[in-house]
Amino acid sequence: MSSVGFGLINSLIQSGDRFSSLNDFGISEDHFIDNEVSAYSFTKSFILEHGQYPQVSTIARHIGDITAFDGLEDEPVSYWVEEVKERKRYSDIKNTLVHVRSQTEAGNISGAIDLLANSYINLRNSYTGQGIEDLRELEQRVLENHDTIQRSPDIPGIPFGFPFIDTLSGGAQRGDYIAIVGETGVGKTYLALKMAKTGFDAGHNILAISTEMPTLQAARRILAMEGRFSTTDLKMGRLSHFGRQRAQRIVEQGAASVEGSNWFYFLPGGMFSKVEDIIILAREMKPDLLVVDGAYLLQVKAASWWEKNMEVARQLKNLSLLEDIRTISTYQFLKKDTGKLEGVGGGFAIPQIASIVFSFEYERKEDRENNNEVQYRKLKFIKGRDGESGSVRVLYNMKRTSLTQDRVLTGRVDPDERTTLGDESRLLDENEVEEI
User: What DSSP line would sit under 315-379, residue for residue?
Assistant: First the structure.
């Protein structure tokens, strides 16, 4: 008796379409069942040996089922592809439900949830086509993107908030997976939130999570950046009457503009501590930018710390590519390898996966133990998407919860763009500080 797998193989042979086009459609041996598996394997081996398709009668004789291809409708390959995919989805859902029920009856609710989450991700992946593409068509899209960018006064991607870095990189591009790395306490979270807030201010939708702090604490830092307050003063209830009024205006103005505008959502780290939970939500909400502070603390099955970091990065990179989402994640440097690619998350894996790697560093060694609220940091490209390199000095002002470009340290851009890269901040004179 014929089945959809035989229908797909028959349609490929009759149409003369490439056997490798199955990969374009996301079809693998796992999509075939019973005798179909033997037919698939024989066809593949035949092509490798003889350079052409076998006759369907030859396949039927080889697998010992002469009726395998009888009664098949004359439909295009795309029809059979969807039939095979739907059958596998049905089978996968059915098998998942059996295992979920088993885990639930055993009292392992967490295991049941994990099964559902993984099943959902796999099902969503089955709807994503990643076929080969013609070079000339891709080049035409490159030119169309070029013309769109040329007509726009803005950078093509989501800005990071540092003029030199934005001009050099073009901002965060679709499909980018960006790693921020630094020592403990250097200010990676502040930097990630600064980039998230910059993207939000530029009109983009932001989804953020911190595995290291509650959402209220992250929101406090954002509000402090908006109002140029000290985060400590905001936390300890030390705003002046005028400072409190200003903070209220910021909140009310933001709330008034929510309807119909872009959004910024925080995820609670405890509820979304597993990487697959974040992937599911990101696919559903489709933010322009996903920010994951403390990606090294996300839960994923892996044997060692560096393997866990690699797997988290791999899954988030895959999300970025498949869903056209920009993702920024923060990681720790191994102390002995601070500033080096091999020090990112315990090895070279994350830098190899990431599109861009930023190193956020203390300007001087003694700053690690320095309690001054106003210091300097260095923000460096240690890996660029297209070979970019350069660094800026960042004014790290915790009196005002402000991270701003002070000056360019290394790197070059076109002379025409120099005018946009001037120092955008300086140390504040005490006379200029508004009473907060």
Answer: HHHHHHHHHT-EEEEEEEBPGGGTTSGGGBTTSSHHHHH-SEEEEEEESSGGGGG---SEEEEEE
